[in-house]
Amino acid sequence: MILHYPENALEKLEEVSFLIRHGLELNDYLKIEEIRSYVSYATEEQPYVNKASKLFPKQAQASEEGGEEADAGAPIGTVQDLMSERHIYQWAGIGFGEQEVYRLQKSLKKLATDRAAKSLRFFGKVYGLHSDYYIVEADVEGGDEGEAEAGEGQADQEPKGTGVNKYSYFVTSNSLSEWTKLPDLSLKDLSVAR
């Protein structure tokens, strides 16, 4: 009683006495043991764990002969270190929280690997009416597979990798979601923006 109810241990002792006299189970009414069941909590958190586990690449199995790990995946280009730069954002009054910054960092690394980007830079966060969006600036070499099939795009569009289309931009509403590539800009888009 002193461990679990230090403020009102004497009152709880009277409750224990009452429960024992009436043959009732103490665990149903008072916390007297440290044993807890986390099954319901684990079941509730399983969808989050499934989404978050996609950000962590599966570790290569150790080779049986040497015991060394094999290559975990293709090498990636430079990725901005959000974990060390989050203090700078906080000084400027911008904060996403330590866990969200960590998930963003892992998401950026996954994006760099998936898109074979030479460099990735966190561009910012846009607050929307229905959802907020994270934006990343990427230097993707050679474009994406889907772009090759789509053709050259509009006639008034600058070539990929030059001018306003030097970088590709990706957006997501959640650090656990997939990144969506934004379309390249045309001269019409620039004149509308101006």
Would you tell me the overall average pLDDT? 79
Question: What is the chain-wise order of helices and strands?
Answer: HHEHHEEHEEH
Secondary structure tally, helices: 6
Q: From the helix content, strand content and strand pairing, which structural class follows?
A: alpha+beta
| Coarse shape | elongated
Would you write up a description of this structure?
There is one protein chain. By secondary structure, the chain is of the alpha+beta class. It has 2 domains: 9-50, no CATH class; 78-193, no CATH class. The protein is built from 6 helices and 5 strands, in the order H-H-E-H-H-E-E-H-E-E-H. It has helices at 9-21, 39-53, 82-91, 98-115, 145-150, 187-193; strands spanning 78-79, 117-127, 132-140, 168-172, 180-181. The chain has a 5-stranded mixed β-sheet, covered by helices on one side. The longest helix has 18 residues, at 98-115. The radius of gyration is 27 Å and the shape is elongated.
